## 1
Amino acid sequence: MGDSSSSQDGVEARKAAIDCVRRIDEYESYANIVLVNAFKKWNFEQRDKNLITEIVYGATRMQRALDWAVDRYLIKPPPAALRASLRIGAYQLLYTRIPPHAAVSTTVEASSKKNRGVVNAVLRRVAEGLPIEWPNESIRLSYPDWLIELVESEYGMREGQEMLEYMNSSPPVTERDDGYIQDLSSQWVVENIDIQPKELILDLCAAPGGKATAMAAKGACVVASDLHHSRSRRMSQNIKRLRTDEVLQVTTDGVQPCFAKSTFDKVLVDAPCSGLGVLHRRADARWRIKRSDVDNLAILQLKLLRSAKELVKPGGELIYSVCTITEAETSNVIKSFTKSVDGLKPVVINDSRWRKKNGGVFLLPQDHETDGMSMFKWEVK
Ligand SMILES: C[S@@+](CC[C@H](N)C(=O)[O-])C[C@H]1O[C@@H](n2cnc3c(N)ncnc32)[C@H](O)[C@@H]1O
């Protein structure tokens, strides 16, 4: 990426980036929301917006590595505003092609007056010390220890690290024919559901409606239900925008849904999950998720599958998908589910783009530059 020459040679863009990174760190705000608000508050050209987005997302993803790179030159932990300046400065030095003198001078100028001396001194030392010799892979890859240990223990050192490395870059944006932005992995989940025209399909965890609208576009009548009212509102906007008349929206808890037994030809459980397959899309997620969340979500996923199974007509299909690849939320949930429920016949998914595992399929993000995703199907007898 080159440097921006608009808005005072990029100083205003760095000011905005510092403000965003500080908010994400200090108030645990969501990176995407902070950026949307920043672009409402300040009037930036698209070029500056791209630069700010790259710096804010990058500095958030790489914060463990960046903090290690600058902390060597500090005598005590810096307060939030100084921390933010150092992170965005070091991010530009380590991970972009912005010339070091431009990265340092714009970041120094964008910092508050009292921080400028330290920012200048520390960033110069970081620039002089490139390339960095990292003390270990966890710091270089910039993930919490538990997450690295989990991924490496399940996928091995090489593939695990490849996956984590891949999720340190910005993901590609893919658009469907109808203009809806949806990752290929989600499109491939729908491609692997054998949808017949006019059949009745329930999407039990449907918001914001990506898969529900894709299934309706293939001719199904879709009931799109979700627990969360605010997410359902976004779904109505998407349904309206895409003019998908065949989607009926319902707000209900999927664990105790308001539908009669054996109603649907197919039920999709695109369950809430740890999202470890989409960490490249959600820059702050790796610092937000806890190890215990994985197990708690697995319990919820099992409950959702049990209630969903009851809603499928005999001879119909139950489909489970999650944008994660942890064993706890895939193979282990499936094992407990199939052990505790009668009348399920696994349906083999034959799609060479996906890897097979324990009767289902999964994608690692680096396989096809998609999100990480897992999928299972059963016929309900
Ligand atoms: C992975 S997202 C679904 C994405 C959606 N299927 C799509 O393709 O756009 C999981 C959804 O599950 C919803 N959810 C969480 N707990 C739920 C529950 N108990 N019952 C129903 N939906 C729930 C969340 O609000 C969230 O919208």
Note: Residues 186, 203-211, 226-228, 231, 253-255, 270, 272 surround S-adenosylmethionine (CB under 6 Å).
## 2
Amino acid sequence: MSQPRRRSRAPKPPVETTIDRWLPTGEGCGSHGDREVHAWGALPGERVMVQVRKRKAGIWHGMVAEVLEASADRVEPLESHYLCCSPWQVVRPDLENGLKTALVREMASRHGVELPSFTVQGAVEVGYRNKLEFGFTGTDEGLSLSFFVRGGSGWRMPLDGCVLANEPINVVARAMVARLNQLGLSPRTTKSLILRSNRAGQVVAGLYVRDRVPTIGAFDDLEPLVGWRVYLSNPKSPASVVDETLEEYGAAAIREQLGSAGFELTDRSFFQVNVPRFETALEAMKRHVLPDRPIVDLYAGVGSIGIGLGRPGTLFVESDPQCVECLTSNCQAAGLESPTILAQPAEAGLPDFPSESTVIVDPPRVGLHAKVVRVLAERRPSRLIYLSCNPDSQLRDLSLWRDAFRVVDFEAFNFFPRTPHVESLAILEPL
Ligand SMILES: C[S@@+](CC[C@H](N)C(=O)[O-])C[C@H]1O[C@@H](n2cnc3c(N)ncnc32)[C@H](O)[C@@H]1O
């Protein structure tokens, strides 16, 4: 891949360290003199040179610059930008689920939570992501797709697609960047490209631009692409937020099927990125939902859990207006009887629900708001199902419920192979 045109500031010389353990984040931890060093892309047992990017609370944070003595558990990464998207590309794939299991167990003991026995499940593969957001950067050859370099420097690494994404996403992204180069667009004007696909191989896309640009036009011969939009987006904000739609071609949404329920997905709505793995988790949740009792689905997104369970009278709570819109139409399309949808933050107050309900929570990475933790501890539903993309915050919340609930089952799924992330599912009953 070509190099960025603008050279970055000369980095400080890397520091040498021996890595002695994994951190819960998936970084290797070592020391340099009396400094603790956290390094992405470094494995326990390795002697490495670490390029320090940040100093925070006395700890040096960075990424591996050179491996002086490699661990037997190291493999070649699949792509040169692996530290941007999936730093565990250098870890032997057959060890990944075991490592994740050990890290979650360690987090549980740090939070003082006793878990039933479990192991992380799921194939360690690539090409699973059905959504990806690329940025742009300038190179000697023109505009390129990019990801941020880890460490908050704001530097961007040029790339030509990503192995985590399924192939239709990469095919469309490459064709789009080629068109933008034909039109002579620069990274100053182009903000981001968000692509969403389904298992049928269809793609919808949104290109976010900071200024009005010449018409980009349709892609008539680009087979996976069934619809795309050009959005004008505030040049002062780094976020991909829509201020105005400048161009519109083809379908606004594609459909994905989860069991018997169909879901409409746009380039902008939330949906689980690894659908087959999510289906495994959904099956596990189905086994734990109390029969013939009401369901409350908090942090409901577009309804993939609550609609998938298909129980009449389900109460959904979701704060994002885009998701609420999709949730409403997904409930109708699935023929779900008498759903109630509360478009508000969960911490704004939960309506009354029968204590024999099954309550499902699936919050963002930060975990539950303290008010939600408190309200659920007070109401003590008969069954509480907690799905999380961040076991660390989930286990923190479970530790706060020590006097209210006990964990009766715990499972973990490899939703995000070749990255340190893991999805975990806790089933709780009141004490
Ligand atoms: C991890 S997603 C889960 C979505 C859904 N359960 C699914 O499986 O697709 C978290 C969802 O919580 C929503 N959310 C974030 N903060 C919230 C809050 N304070 N109250 C309610 N929903 C919130 C987000 O918009 C997002 O849809």
Note: The radius of gyration is 23 Å.
